[in-house]
């Protein structure tokens, strides 16, 4: 007998028929003798409907009240799922964030889980019932309702799995697993049977959308195996687990791309100590995240040395960031500021990079062979990212996918 | 400075514009220096939408899960109202049943309030904010969500007012007060400026729909003055208060009618001790309420004495009640059982009846003058009810309204 957490996203509970399907799946697992905890998102479209209501009242709604409204989406789907399990002949009880209880900090709309009290789940199991937990929501120490941000139900699922010591956290979604790259861009993409937490974390950070980054972080921290699989089939999906020998043999596990960043070039700033610190200090103060940073070699002229500083920020942050960037550029006596939104970050990820030399060089060579110019590079122990013009997205992804042998193994 | 509870029903918060209107009204009251607690129902139509969802999953949904679903209606409207108050420049915080907290028994869908912890309301006021409380909902001692039944927001409002020692509980609705009778039946109906708890309780029990019976019971028990008024005007409505000398001078305060009952006649049962007890004992066991009871004089024949027993039950209970009634009628050797759904209960209510003789006789005379036959009578200290054929509803109500001088004082 295993203790299994099963998480179903908005599409999987998007209609009464689909909720019935979820109920049958949970009961099938329970019928195999397992204890089941179900985590559900709001029915697809419901969260948007609720937020729209709030936005009709006021343009910038108070975050506390927004969370009170948004949390009802999961409250309804949890109770409907419990009803569907009962209708199929099972026993089930819904549990909300304040009932479980999922204690978070007070950062409304993006709260972080601090602790989970699992006793309500265990007492539900003792009554022979399946516990259906509302995802996405928690409660702060004042008893105020909080939400975990978009995709927060993944985080609820993994955190609950960690708190109750579940054997596995199954994430049911509308795709059947984690792919070597986005199949809509590269038809040769294959389902990855097994991937390490570290690789999954890099892939999620670099643009793969299957799992929420924070849920992978929690799974890695507490060693909760995640099984990403389709809610519409019984096929095995992708296991996200601790790294082992077999995983290290694969040099590149996946290719990711991210079109959400824009490049900023602050050109011709004085090349003296403290300049870069001042630039990025100012941007960080405004709570704007900077990703890749490239400082060009300084060029001397008339005894004065000048350099270009380039970096990337989220496109959505750009309108807010521009005034600060230009202000600090002015104070640094920069010659010009340029923005480029026509870029994409293409990345390769793999545990095997640690023990295989020349992986980055091979990536650059593959891109060069396709005539793709690289405007920035960033690396970690298990990934290499290159910034290229976004018109090359498909070409770059397919070339890397083929070049690192990912297209062969189908 | 007064402490004022303001309750707004589903129609009053039925759209974003109406919620804004509610917000402005609360702020106007606060601007006069009062502390305000707002109680809101779900937006009109919302509770039905939610219950329909549950019924799509299963025909007879589990009451616990139904309450989890239904409670989201008030959760959303409370937060939207808080947002609207903020948008109008005020401070407000929503509070849910489990936050206030409104402790109830565990009778899902018809829970009774056991206690209200008011400290969250006071701490909200201390922050200079209006407390917006979700009506209709509570939480039992296990932390499970409960609801108080249809119209339960009235009960929430009065119970909260009693718990925090409010000076008045204002019930805002789509009519501008309590009327001497239903204006749609009798155009001469007038708004009653002031009525006693006892009279209001009788009127509510006898068919007037303005206030929920339990809310009046609580108001009477704790002496909370209720002010029933329109959410669309500033006019004074009806004050429901402790009785006083001025109220006792009015013989008849209002005329009510109720078409929700059906008459059952169990004819020709043996007239011996215990027969009636057996009949009504059996019905009561099935949790079916009986209202009026009339036992005809026994008629002897061949040394055997037989009698007819007639009573009324709710029409909605009749399908469920019939099998039990027929079973017990058989065991009592009754000669026949007849059902009559074409009846109406017409009632007059007034504190002054206590000190004025002949009120019932006058009622019978008025009905007789109109040629209306009375098939059953029931009286209390401050009301007289007559059962008549339902085709006479309008005629009876208008004749009584005029006959007791209620049409004159407009």
Automatic annotation (TrEMBL), chains A, B:
PROSITE patterns: ACT, ASPARTOKINASE. Its EC number is 2.7.2.4. GO terms for molecular function: aspartate kinase activity. Signal peptide: none annotated. Residues 264-342, 348-410 form the ACT domain. Keywords: Amino-acid biosynthesis, ATP-binding, Kinase, Lysine biosynthesis, Nucleotide-binding, Transferase. InterPro entries: AceGlu_kinase-like_sf (IPR036393), ACT-like_dom_sf (IPR045865), ACT_Aspartokinase (IPR054352), ACT_dom (IPR002912), AKii-LysC-BS (IPR041740), Asp/Glu/Uridylate_kinase (IPR001048), Asp_kin_monofn (IPR005260), Asp_kinase (IPR001341). It holds the Pfam family ACT_9. Pathway: Amino-acid biosynthesis; L-threonine biosynthesis; L-threonine from L-aspartate: step 1/5; Amino-acid biosynthesis; L-methionine biosynthesis via de novo pathway; L-homoserine from L-aspartate: step 1/3; Amino-acid biosynthesis; L-lysine biosynthesis via DAP pathway; (S)-tetrahydrodipicolinate from L-aspartate: step 1/4. The keyword Zinc does not apply. It catalyses: L-aspartate + ATP = 4-phospho-L-aspartate + ADP. The keyword Chaperone does not apply. NCBIfam families: asp_kin_monofn, asp_kinases, PRK06635.1-2, PRK06635.1-4. Belongs to the aspartokinase family. PANTHER family: ASPARTATE KINASE, ASPARTOKINASE. This is Aspartokinase. The lineage of its organism: Bacteria, Pseudomonadati, Myxococcota, Myxococcia, Myxococcales.
């Amino acid at each position: 007998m295993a203790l299994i957490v099963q998480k179903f996203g908005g599409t999987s509970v998007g209609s009464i028929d689909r909720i019935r399907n979820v109920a049958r799946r949970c009961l099938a697992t329970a019928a195999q003798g397992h204890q089941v905890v179900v985590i559900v998102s709001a029915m697809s479209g419901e969260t948007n409907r609720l937020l729209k209501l709030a936005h009709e009242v006021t343009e910038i709604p108070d975050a506390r009240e927004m969370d009170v409204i948004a949390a009802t989406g999961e409250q309804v789907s949890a109770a409907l799922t419990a009803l569907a399990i009962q209708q199929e002949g099972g026993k089930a009880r819904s549990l909300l964030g304040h009932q479980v209880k999922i204690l978070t900090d007070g950062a409304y709309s993006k709260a972080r889980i601090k602790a989970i009290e699992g006793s309500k789940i265990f007492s539900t199991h003792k009554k022979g019932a399946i516990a259906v937990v509302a995802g996405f929501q928690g409660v702060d120490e004042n008893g105020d309702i909080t939400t975990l941000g978009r995709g927060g139900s993944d985080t609820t699922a993994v955190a609950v799995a960690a708190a109750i010591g579940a054997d596995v956290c199954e994430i049911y979604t509308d795709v059947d697993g984690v792919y070597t790259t986005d199949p809509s861009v590269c038809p040769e993409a294959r389902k990855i049977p097994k991937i390490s937490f570290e690789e999954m974390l890099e892939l999620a950070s670099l643009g793969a959308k299957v799992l929420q980054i924070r849920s992978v972080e929690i799974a890695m921290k507490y060693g909760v195996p995640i099984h990403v699989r389709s809610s519409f089939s019984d096929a095995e999906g992708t296991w996200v687990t601790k790294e082992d020998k077999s995983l290290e043999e694969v040099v590149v596990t996946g290719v990711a791309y991210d079109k959400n960043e824009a490049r900023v070039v602050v050109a011709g700033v004085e090349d003296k100590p403290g300049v870069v610190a001042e630039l990025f200090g100012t941007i960080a103060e405004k709570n704007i995240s900077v990703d890749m940073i490239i400082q060009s070699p300084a060029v001397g002229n008339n005894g004065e040395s000048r350099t270009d500083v380039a970096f990337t920020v989220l496109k959505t942050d750009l309108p807010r960031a521009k005034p600060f960037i230009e202000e600090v550029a002015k104070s640094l006596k920069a010659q010009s500021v340029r923005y480029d939104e026509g870029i994409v970050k293409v990345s390769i990820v793999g545990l095997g990079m640690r023990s295989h030399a020349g992986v980055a060089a091979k990536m650059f060579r593959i891109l060069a062979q396709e005539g793709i110019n690289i405007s920035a590079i960033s690396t970690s122990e298990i990934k290499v990212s290159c910034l290229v013009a976004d018109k090359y997205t498909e070409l770059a992804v397919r070339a890397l996918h083929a070049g690192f042998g990912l297209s062969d193994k189908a």
